[in-house]
């Protein structure tokens, strides 16, 4: 029996790849009984960089704590089974195109008629309206469209744009989890189910925070200048990589004196400091033994004379950091009250002292792969602590169990298997 505040909540998952599976994994971490519907061949992420048949790290990292129900959704008997299952479900999470869901009989209108208080969480790439509504889309596509790729502003050795981690997918996963939780709270108060929608696009836009906001009083001239430079570059055939240099120069115009919130190379690695307030900036200056008029009245980073001062200071501080190893600066800045951390790689973190001290690693066992170490659930709760108990399921491992729970006999299950409705 699962633990956590969602113990007793049943969820049917029709999702693939990252956002949906991760969102449902978060709900499983919180105690929901999650039944993952997969095609008989397995969802695509199982087949991505497999290290054994039907198993991959990418799948295992997004599907712990679930049951695998391997079923051919196009088969009439499968549709009947899904509709019987829905009667006992609290939540459905789906990321299919609208036409696909309707064709398979798993759209909101069909399922809510069967289960009126059902919570139906619908995730798409670009939202359900507009010219992109029916387009398929993955994280890389939405990062490109949403401005995230441009914000990362990286290119390879041939000038091709590069994206960062799958932040559109992962933030959407949290939105899926939060949307389901809010709808469950509403249903508890009113008895009403509902359809909840989110998309990779809205979550990608949210990541931009204030950079997305259009506030003429605050940045009208800057925005207009950027858009004009962009239009000129596109009209004259300036390459993406070359325009990034122009964009970066515009962004750096007032940042020459930023020695307070940035990363530095050290003698043996690199670190990051984060001093965003006047008080913390004063601590940086005191710790490093430097003088700077950054927080004095009249400071103008765009003034040429001030810019020269700022550039000279930046070069001085960068040179200082290169004179000592990371551990030296980590201790010195920490002793000085400056937020600081070494730049680490993910491969270092499972056994890292801080990660271990907080119990941020969970050890599970996979039926085929054996021991699995993963990130723990992202919450600690004093009364209903989430406690992931099982690794990701083997394909179809729970098909018979799920159907038996819906009232199918062993003979009926065997007949469905023989007919090709289930794995």
> CA-to-CA gap between the ends?
25 Å
**How helix-rich are the residues, as a percent range?**
40-55%
Beta-strand fraction estimate:
5-15%
How many helices does DSSP assign? 17
Low-confidence stretches: none
Spatial sequence of strands, sheet with the most strands: 3-2-1-4-5-8
Topology diagram in text:
Blueprint: E1 10-14, H1 19-29, E2 33-38, H2 57-60, E3 66-70, H3 76-86, E4 91-94, H4 98-104, H5 108-114, E5 119-124, H6 139-146, H7 148-152, E6 154-155, E7 161-162, H8 167-190, E8 194-199, H9 200-207, H10 216-235, H11 240-252, E9 261-265, E10 270-274, H12 278-288, H13 304-321, H14 326-335, E11 340-342, H15 353-357, E12 361-366, E13 370-375, H16 399-405, H17 410-418
Parallel strand pairs: 1-2, 1-4, 2-3, 4-5, 5-8
Antiparallel strand pairs: 6-7, 9-10, 10-11, 12-13
Report on the structure:
This protein has 3 domains: 10-206 and 358-418, Crotonobetainyl-coa:carnitine coa-transferase, domain 1 (Rossmann fold, 3-Layer(aba) Sandwich); 216-253; 258-347, formyl-coa transferase, domain 3 (2-Layer Sandwich). The strands form 4 sheets. A 6-stranded parallel beta sheet has the order 3-2-1-4-5-8, sandwiched between helices. Helix 6 crosses helix 9 and helix 10 packs antiparallel against helix 11 (240-252). A hairpin with a 3-residue loop joins strand 12 (361-366) and strand 13. It is 42% helix and 14% strand. The protein is elongated and about 85 Å long. The protein is built from 17 helices and 13 strands. The chain has helices at residues 19-29, 57-60, 76-86, 98-104, 108-114, 139-146, 148-152, 167-190, 200-207, 216-235, 240-252, 278-288, 304-321, 326-335, 353-357, 399-405, 410-418; strands at 10-14, 33-38, 66-70, 91-94, 119-124, 154-155, 161-162, 194-199, 261-265, 270-274, 340-342, 361-366, 370-375. The protein has 423 residues and is an alpha/beta fold.
């Amino acid at each position: 029996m699962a633990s956590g505040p969602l113990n007793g909540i049943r969820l049917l998952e029709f999702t693939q790849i990252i956002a949906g599976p991760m969102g449902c994994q978060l709900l499983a971490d919180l105690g929901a009984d999650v039944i993952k519907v997969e095609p008989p061949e397995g969802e695509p992420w199982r087949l991505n960089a497999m290290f054994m048949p039907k198993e991959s790290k990418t799948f295992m990292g997004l599907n712990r704590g679930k049951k695998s129900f391997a079923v051919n959704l196009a088969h009439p008997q499968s549709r009947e089974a899904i509709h019987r299952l829905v009667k006992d479900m609290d939540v459905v999470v789906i990321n299919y195109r609208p036409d696909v869901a309707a064709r398979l009989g798993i759209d909101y209108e069909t399922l809510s008629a069967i289960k009126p208080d059902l919570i139906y969480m619908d995730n798409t790439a670009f939202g359900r309206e507009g010219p992109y509504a029916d387009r398929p889309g993955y994280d890389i596509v939405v990062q490109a469209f949403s401005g995230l790729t441009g914000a990362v502003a990286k290119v390879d050795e041939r000038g091709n744009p590069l994206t960062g981690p799958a932040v559109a997918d992962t933030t959407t996963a949290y939105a899926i989890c939060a949307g389901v939780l809010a709808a469950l709270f509403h249903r508890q108060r009113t008895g009403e189910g509902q359809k909840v929608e989110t998309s990779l696009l809205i979550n990608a836009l949210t990541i931009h925070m204030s950079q997305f906001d259009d506030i003429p009083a605050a940045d009208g001239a800057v925005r207009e200048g950027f858009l004009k430079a962009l239009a000129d570059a596109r009209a004259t055939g300036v390459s993406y990589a070359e325009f990034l240099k122009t964009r970066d120069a515009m962004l750096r115009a007032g940042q020459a004196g930023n020695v307070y919130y940035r990363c530095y190379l050290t003698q043996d690695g690199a670190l990051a400091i984060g001093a965003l307030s006047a008080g913390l900036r004063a601590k940086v200056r005191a710790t490093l033994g430097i003088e700077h008029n950054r927080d004095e009245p009249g400071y103008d980073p765009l003034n040429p004379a001030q810019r020269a001062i700022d550039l000279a200071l930046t070069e001085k501080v960068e040179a200082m950091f290169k004179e000592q190893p990371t551990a030296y600066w980590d201790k010195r800045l920490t002793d000085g009250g400056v937020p600081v951390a070494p730049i680490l790689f993910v491969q270092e973190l499972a056994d890292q002292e801080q990660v271990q001290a907080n119990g941020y690693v969970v050890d599970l066992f996979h039926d085929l792969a054996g021991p699995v170490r993963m990130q723990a659930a992202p919450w600690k709760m004093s009364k209903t602590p989430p406690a992931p108990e099982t690794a990701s399921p083997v394909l179809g491992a729970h098909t018979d169990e799920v159907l038996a729970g819906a009232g199918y006999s062993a003979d009926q299950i065997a007949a469905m298997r023989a007919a090709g409705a289930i794995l």
